Every structure is written in structure tokens, then in C-alpha cells.
Amino acid sequence: MKNLIKNGLPKYLFFVILGAFMLLTTGCNPQKSEAKKLATHFIKEYVNEDFARHTNFMKLDSTYYVTDSVIGNLRQQADTSRLFKTKIAYGDEPSTTLVYFLQAKLHDKDGEEHLLTFYYDLGITRLLAVKGN
Question: Rounded to the nearest 5 degrees, what angle is found at the Cα of 109, between the Cα atoms of 103 and 112?
């Protein structure tokens, strides 16, 4: 670093480049923003008010381990869960084995924590399933 500054790279330019690099590597993730937006809409629409007091979203990630049958099972479990108000409207079954997921921690009126996992299609345009723990 000192060699760069000594050999003619102006000090301010070095810090501008360093700042730009840090901003690019830690900046906003548009995929996570879209996933959070879909999850927030889902929570407002389908989660019982007693469970939706406070929400913290985790990291957006992907997995190959969610098959069509797993999605079908997750949908059936959600239909009978006391976390949700009504039968949930989902997007179509995925056309790929890769899906994205986002976890959210909800706190109910008694302060008890509940974990929801949202599964999305590859473009993060549709919610495929939700799992409540």
C-alpha cells in the first residue's frame, strides 16, 4: 500500500478506489430486497396477527435440495399451521431444482420467537412455499 502511494498514485485516489470497492462489495443486494418485499407482503396477508409483532430477516441463500415433492409437503403443512390465516396462494411449481430461500424471525405477542423460511423461484418473482417452525 505504501509503495502504491510512494510510486505516484495520489493518496486521495487510493482512498477513492478503496471506498468504491468497499461500497460495491457491501452494497445493497437487489435479490434480497425483492425477497424481503415478497416476504413482508406474505406476512401482512397470511400470518396471524398474534405472530407478526416483529420481524428480522436473515441472509438470502440458495439450495438444490428442495424438490417438487418437498414443496408440496411444505404447502400442505402451511395449510394446517396455526401461524397462517387462510389457504395460501403460491406461484407455480419451480421449473428448476435451484431455489432461493430467506428466513425470517417473528415474535408473537408473548415474545416467543417463530422462524419462517420462504422459498422462491430462481428469479425471486414468486413464492413457492413457506415453512413455519
Answer: 50
Matching residue, cell 406476512:
43
Residues 75-130: tens digit of each pLDDT:
999 988 888 887 888 877 766 678 899 999 988 888 888 899 999 988 899 999 99
From CA 52, how far away is CA 49, in angstroms rounded?
5
- pTM of model > 0.85: no
CA dist 113 and 57 (Å) reads 13
Q: Which of 119, 113, 41, 128 is nearest to 83 (CA)?
A: 113
- Burial degree of 35 (CB within 10 A; 0-12, 13-18, 19+): buried
